[in-house]
Model the fold of this input.
Amino acid sequence: DAGVIQSPRHEVTEMGQEVTLRCKPISGHDYLFWYRQTMMRGLELLIYFNNNVPIDDSGMPEDRFSAKMPNASFSTLKIQPSEPRDSAVYFCASSLWGEQYFGPGTRLTVT
Amino acid sequence: RKEVEQDPGPFNVPEGATVAFNCTYSNSASQSFFWYRQDCRKEPKLLMSVYSSGNEDGRFTAQLNRASQYISLLIRDSKLSDSATYLCVVIPTGGYQLIWGAGTKLIIKP
Done:
């Protein structure tokens, strides 16, 4: 079975550019989570969805970040405009009964 | 006080040794507990769930102590491939958001 799929795996962009990260959860999972991980702050929950509806976005750092889940098999995390401090690994995870399964992550570098 | 606390390590352990980690949590109403493993530059992967009665999976044993509000992970006969960061995760009762510890780094040396 395919796990959580994320794209791109690596993204290098210049400050001020828009960045879109994509995630396909495991089929049948009804929860989807977006995380950010840095050495300094560890793993941070940004937002999560249940049945495509955003439940808690209190972890989204600021208005430059937005996330959507138009259907059960696809979600996006968008940063506009991007800043160097957004450089991190962004993980998407999906869940059905509590345990979360992570995608391989997108390593974002903003120069 | 952090909701979930772990000793960050690193724990430097010779191959074949037994190593144990503890993780404390502050919310006494927490309902579910997990250990995840994260290799360098990889995603976290579920290692095992932690049940009230304790559970074992090969060389790995997880225990829950609700009275003292901690969970533990024991690794026996450690292998070089066990080198990783081990993350403790707690789900509060009535919630769905996982509360993550900062992780304990384990280095197994030959």
About this structure: The two ends of chain A are 37 Å apart (CA to CA).
